[in-house]
Amino acid sequence: MRTSVSGSLPASLSRTNLTSVSFFSNKLTGRIPRSLQDLPYLTYFDASNNRLVGRIPPGLVSNGAPDRLLGLTLTNNRLTGPIPRMYGRERYFMNFRVANNRLTGDAAFLFGRRNTVYDVDLSGNRLRFNLTGVEMPENLLFLNMSRNRIYGGVPASLTQLKKLTTLDLSYNQLCGEIPTGGNMGRFKPEAYEHNKCLCGTPLPAC
């Protein structure tokens, strides 16, 4: 569903059987109705590039068929508060994009070796959590966590990602030596710059 609308997201959508909804680049304002979590088959929701405020409701795309891949894109809005932890229990995300909002708190629970997600963009928020021991999904292709308040070290699990092509951890509070091995050599200094005390290739030696 592709629209050109302004105003609030219609709560009446919850009375439909839609599987995919896109309000990309409209003039939507207000909050995301919690009633949208009642859509029984929704597996993809895109409301990026709008003026939405408030919190991300839990379960926006978690009620679909259990074997279908899920996608949630809320980039470039004015959303606040924490990411609901229930999104970390969904193993079948293909993408999770919430960049350029005002989200806070933890996001480490979104990851895990068995998760299917391959595209994660958390950049431009106020997220704060320890990245050190986070296990990354083995099929991850794109990871952007830049411009947050993430601390700890660069996780060693990144060295095991054979498919990772894009990595950006810049403008955080990370510290310690950058792990080597795997495909880590492909990432330039810009992926790590403006952190607290990161060192090692491709940055200066520790």
Which keywords apply here?
single chain; 206 residues; mainly beta; Leucine-rich repeat, LRR (right-handed beta-alpha superhelix); 6-stranded parallel beta sheet; 0% helix; 28% strand
CATH class: Alpha Beta
Mean pLDDT: 91
Instruction: Work out the helix count.
Output: 0
CATH H-level superfamily: Ribonuclease Inhibitor
- Approximate helicity band: under 10%
Q: How many E strands? A: 16
Distance between the termini: 51 Å
CATH architecture, by name, is: Alpha-Beta Horseshoe
Spatial strand order of the main sheet: 2-4-6-8-10-12-14
Pfam families: LRR_1
InterPro entries: Leu-rich_rpt, LRR_dom_sf, PGIP
Main location: other
Subcellular location: Cell envelope
Write a compact overview of the structure shown.
It is found in: Cell envelope. The protein is mainly β.
Would you mind describing this structure in some detail?
This protein has a 7-stranded parallel beta sheet, with no helix packed on it. The protein has one domain: Alpha-Beta Horseshoe (Leucine-rich repeat, LRR (right-handed beta-alpha superhelix)), CATH 3.80.10.10. The mean pLDDT is 91. Helix content is 0%, strand content 28%. The protein has 206 residues and is mainly beta.
